# Entry
Amino acid sequence: MRSSSYFALPGALSRSGRRATRAALVVALTAGVATAVPAAQADTPTAAPAATSTALAAKPYMGWSSWSMQSSKYPGLNPDGDYSYLTEANVLKQAKALSSKLKAYGYDHVNIDAGWWMDKDWKSGFDQYGRQKSDPVRFPSGMKSVADRIHALGLKAGIYLPVGLEKGAYNDGRTPIWNADGCTTADIVYSDLRTTNGWDSAYKIDFSNPCAQKYIDSQAQQFADWGYDFLKLDGVGPGSFKSGDNYNNVADVAAWQKAIATAGRPVHLELSWSLDVNYAADWKKYSNGWRIDTDIECYCNTLVTWENSVDDRWDDAPAWSNKAGPGGWNDLDALDVGNGEMDGLTKAERQSYMTLWAISKSPLYTGDDLTKLDSYGVSLLTNKEVIAVDQSASPVARPVTSVNDQQVWGTRNADGSYTVALFNLGDSPASVTADWTSFGFTGNASVRDLWNRSNLGTHKNRITSTLPAHGSRLFTVKPGGTTLATTAYEAEDAANTLSGNASVAGCDACSGGKKVGNLYGGGKVTFNDVTVKKDGIYTVRVAYVSGDARSVNVSSNSGNGSGQKFPSTGDWSTAETVSVQLALKAGTNTVTFDSGTGYAPDIDRIVVPKSR
# Structure
């Protein structure tokens, strides 16, 4: 079971064997080293600059985040106690390294995560209006000075908050709200002091009282006055492994969007962690990015490990693939590939990690120590062709094959080429093949290897690569052949055979407006009269609908078939396509989708090449 811990109590963050999902704030901090400002002057508000016309989150942001290092047990990172790495000096050191090493490649955000308002013992500090106040030991110059020095490096500064009214700010309900006559903290929360967020560290805000919006306005104004460009709002639900009305923070997110709009400074609003995909429309409406999964960090003696929880993203990203675009992106969490020893990953794993982030158009923010990047890490983080995949206007990639250990992902680019990624998620070397028929064409195609920055010449019908354990390849494929001639067969066709619970249902997203569903407990649909000209192995494209990842046994004729896991389409009203390999004979064939003892995806149709 995945879980998460918060930072409300010393040592409360994840223990060995737990998957903490404390998403790091996508902070756009950029730091420079300058003369320290006296603490008494540190957070004095100044006039906010006028809003710029630049659209927020037009592309996934890039930068650095503090959470990976401050949460790790890696030797030397947190010598003064858990999470002690987060200090003004360390943030500015990383910002300076970001500016000198990675800024030229597009990395321009510095993410200050949880703890900036907490002392070494994790005790929170608040101002007279119940707003978080920077800890004078961690950040002696104050948060405004830090933002100023980040900006001096040509970078952007970000900051972090948990959702809700933190318990320490409540003060028996007597704390006044800034710029809101007569409003106190008693007015902005429910009278029963119900709790919220992923750690129950805050009281749930009651937005039926206008004082509540005033409180959020006061926080947003403070961040704008300090000069922050980015806010990560953490512990947000629905999601964060909590359910029920207390953990529905859509109203909070809407209030933050409203407050930011009137604060006089553009601020990117990033949500965390492990958001519920069923509320994707709300996250898109009110924010610029959303974490889709548990924390990437292992909370161990490295920053991450493959099993906890880098590899989870291949399972979880497909459900979100059609939710992202300019203005709001799927956040896969920190990209810790810059130093193999500190990261705890093999070279193959590091490359696969960044490959998935790039094709998913996730924000690219590393949590590594930028002063100690190894040469291979630099080559990954600064590969302009791979970065261009992440930053391009092409749609987010999805699996084009079933999602077993060997997978092919891809997307079509605006110029008619395809971005194609091969992954071997197995624990031993394996061969992975991308068939051009999975992308709707056949014949020759020119292939460029993006990681090696080399042209591979022309490949006919497919490309195959033997990959190491957890390895990958990333290509740009330009078709030079012909459009594939195919025949489509609808699942609901009266000529097909339905067995068990299988039944025809309406489907606005499906071709013909219908699909076959209720494929569970032995339910199956058999496509009859599937015709091809020659015997052979055919790449059959399957259109389906599935709100979660589901497996189905796919067979042709009297064969036993094979179990195929189809990735989630995100909800039960969206259709997607994957390809399966089937042996077909010249003439008429049957193709069967059998749920067996479990639950299978709903089937829309199959598309079969007329010839091999």
Remarks:
- The longest helix spans residues 210-226.
- The two ends are 45 Å apart (CA to CA).
